[in-house]
Amino acid sequence: MPPVTAAMLRTDRLDLVPLGPGHADEMAAVLADPALHAFTGGAPDTADALRARYARLAAGSPDPAVAWGNWALRLRADGRLAGYVQATVGPDTAELAWVVGTPWQGRGLAAEAARAVLGHLRAAGTTTVLAHIHPDHPASAAVARSLGLAPTDERQDGEVRWRLVLTEQPEPPERS
Predict the structure, then answer these.
(1) Could you tell me the pTM of the whole model?
(2) Which end of the chain is more exposed for a tag (fewer CB within 10 A), N or C?
(3) Which residue intervals of the chain are DSSP H helices?
């Protein structure tokens, strides 16, 4: 498996830095709004719970055929964290997910960050990208659509599976 998950990535407005336990305190504040869990369930995690989760994620997948990529979104303008993007990467397929804290939503940051990860995965040879999106979440659907993903008839845990086959699709357009 190519080391696609540890790289730092840059966009016009963001540094995507590999997420680690040291981000837990700031990410707890970024993710504190219960509204962020409206479609995924649960409640905001404490900094200690995030620290433990980020340590497990940084240790990597126990399955040698799968890599976990988790990037914190750091705004270059002020150095603050604003959310994260994650990729579960198999030999040919990657599953993408994104979350942007409530104060930073509506600025295109999720699409910008996910586009950077998508380009990184494409360059590493990933041929198919999936995302699972709640059918009542138009903002996440818009991010997926902007990346070139399309909804399928498949469902998993009540979410719609979106798919992009990279070998058959042009690279998504740059957006600012």
Answers:
(1) 0.90
(2) C
(3) 24-30, 47-59, 109-123, 138-147
| b (16+ CB within 10 A) / e for 8-17 | ebebebbbbb
With bands split at pLDDT 50, 70 and 90, how would you rate the model's confidence at 167?
confident
Tokens of 1: 């498996």
Domain assignment present for residue 49? The answer is yes
Q: Which domain holds residue 154?
A: 9-165
Residues 84-116 pLDDT 10s? 999 999 988 999 999 999 999 999 999 999 999
Residue linked to tokens 């399928």: 152
Q: Is the residue at 65 inside a domain?
A: yes
Closest to 144 in 3D by CA, of 176, 104, 117: 117
Q: CA neighbours within 13 Å on the CB side: how many for 42?
A: 8
Q: Which of 132, 83, 79 is nearest to 109 (CA)?
A: 83
Domain count, the chain: 1
Question: Phi, psi (5° rounding) for residue 150?
Answer: -130, 145
Structure tokens at 78: 């002020």
